[in-house]
Design a protein that fits this description.
By secondary structure, the chain is mainly alpha-helical. The protein has helices spanning 2-15, 27-34, 38-50, 68-94, 100-118, 122-140, 143-155, 157-163, 169-185, 189-207, and strands at 24-26, 54-57, 60-63. The longest helix is centred in the middle third of the chain and has 27 residues, at 68-94. It starts with a helix and ends with a helix. This is GntR family transcriptional regulator.
Amino acid sequence: MQADVAWSRLRDLILDGTYPPGARLTEMEAAATLRMSRTPVREALRALAADGLVRPSGRGVVVVALERDDLGEAYQVRAALEALTAELAAIRQREGHIAPAALAALRDLADETASVTARGRLPEAAGLNRRFHGMIAELAGNTMALRTLERIWDQIQVSTLRSLAPPSRPAHVSGQHADLLTAITEGRPERAARIARSHVLDTRASTRTEE
């Protein structure tokens, strides 16, 4: 559907910072940018509002930035859900439900994320970081948790970019990824959950200096 295409493209433009928090966007402007009619764009903007990425403003919408308290709550929910998905992934691994190729792909992604982060390519690293956690959520086999996480990840995308900026963070993040991968591979759900939760809360703590 055209509305789905419009939603996907506008979402990408919001997440990559083309339309930063506070930017105002009208149906006409969005339709011109996407070279589409206003009807699917209107539906897309409604969907983005439901996702929490924009809010209605006059004849258009404004890209939403989470307030400090809301951002803290988002990280709390993210920490709980990522602990859950890490735990479930480790349980499924222990029970033999995860293919070796899937774990190998997760390991390769962790290595690529660490390499890109160490080279200071932060926007690319943030995208890879999200893919890493997304793959764990997929391995968990809980569709509702994955969908909820995707919405939360969207809302705190900018914070994810900032969290990698301090000099001490890249090595710390990569180390936590490696520990999390090991816990899942060894089928240790409690340890996997604990590492995942700590990782998210550490990320939140690192963003406070940027607020």
